[in-house]
Amino acid sequence: MERAAGAVGRMNAANWVFLAILSTLWGGSFLFVELALQGLPVLTIVWLRVAGAAAVLGLWLASAGPGFPRGARVWGALAVMGVLNNAVPFTLLVLAQGQITGGLASILNATTPLWTVLVAHVFTADERLTRGKGLGLVLGFGGVLVIAGAGLEGSLWAIVACLGAALSYGFSGVWGRRFKAMGLAPMQVAFGMLGASAVMLAPVWLVIDRPFAMDLPPAGPLMAVVALAVLSTALAYVLYFRILASAGAVMLSLVTFLIPASAIGLGVLVLDEPVLLRHLGGLALILAGLVAMDGRLAKWRS
Q1: Which residues of 196-233 are buried (b: 16+ CB within 10 A; e: fewer)?
Q2: Residue 19 in contact with residue 243, Cβ under 8 Å?
Q3: Sign of CA dihedral 58, 48, 30, 179
Q4: Using one digit for the tens of pLDDT, what is the confidence trace for 178-235?
């Protein structure tokens, strides 16, 4: 989603709890994908995620929210956002998790702010590279090289897919800057991009996965994809904007550091996945790069 600007807000006890829950929900998405892959094909997982989350957020907008987005221009922009922030990255991450663990995918996904800086430098006039951001990029992508160059036989394409997802998120962060000027509420943007993704993915899903010809999958994968849609997508967006409004974007940026820890921890606890030293070393460099890049976070800590 778009990275809204804002002053450092107050992190009271409730906001810390919400932040921990949000990191668990987004970290848990990698676990839910792994569980869903045990009985569902890739595009089915992606389509059920976006369609299910759009349905939940649509019910909220209809009952208690500001109403639905309107206008062809608005929906055109939301469709592009849906491609960049949902359809492309969700599909690439699910494909990658067929070959690598959710913990490793979450580490690579943590490079999203690095890609956002590069995209913003190229495509905007007010977000240029600074010395701190340059150092952050060197450290962060050094971490990627530690992971990718560590002998992951047969998994290099999966690493590239995860980085492609992070790059797509980077483009979505820049594209999403336009919605404030359009007068859209954040939850309208969330619903619109998810709904647009579901509509655009539907024909591709029907042709490739042919769900009408599939046998009924086991209950476990179905429950996992429901949790992915309702908890890790719809509820996660509600919490995201709740923290953003109360504590500000700087404090919310902490979730970037917590998601890999949540994903790795859940993978170890639920799936008994191994934690490799090279992955932790790469994660440490990526997180160091984010600290160096985000001067606001450093100021908050001082």
Answers
A1: bbbebbeeebeeebeeeeeeebeeebbebbebbbbbbb
A2: yes
A3: negative
A4: 998 899 999 999 999 999 999 999 999 999 999 999 999 999 999 999 999 999 999 9
- Those residues whose C-beta lies under 8 Å from the C-beta of residue 229, and which sit 6 or more positions away, are 48, 49, 50, 51, 52, 53, 56
Domain boundaries, the chain: 13-301
Cα–Cα dist 32/262, whole Å: 13
Strands (E), 111-261: none
Distance, CA of 56 to CA of 99 (rounded, Å): 31
* Amino acid identity at 135: L
Q: What pTM, to 2 d.p., does this model score?
A: 0.88
What is the CA angle 64-65-66, rounded to 5? 135
DSSP string, 4-27: ---------HHHHHHHHHHHHHHH
**Type of residue found at 174:** V
